[in-house]
Amino acid sequence: MNGSIGAAPSAADFDALARSAFARIPEPFSRHLDGITVQVEEFADEETLEALGMDDAWELTGLYQGRPMDEETVWSAGELPSRITLYRQPLLAEWCETGVSLEALVTHVVIHEVGHHFGLSDAQMHALEGQAH
Question: How many CB atoms are located within 10 Å of the residue 11 CB?
């Protein structure tokens, strides 16, 4: 950092970082990402937090919503597309608190949420994240 304080990265900036993270996901995973949408919201809403058993919106930086690939069947057709939501304010707070680059934080969350799409374990997600850098 150069010491000057500018405007916080916008939702469009987060979207660009997420798309960049998607572009670095290696094969064979990358060929199964079509149709996953990304949206950026300021915070998770109360309904989402309640469904996850969470009280503090600052604790949730991202969320995968959809059916994991290992649970898909022919009867899944017609469902809404899978979606990853990034929560901008908690990510900004983590960026400020940790000093980790915003690109690295967004990539971490995207990879973690993509991992849910594939039904991966945390260890498998960590390995995928290592390949995407």
Answer: 13
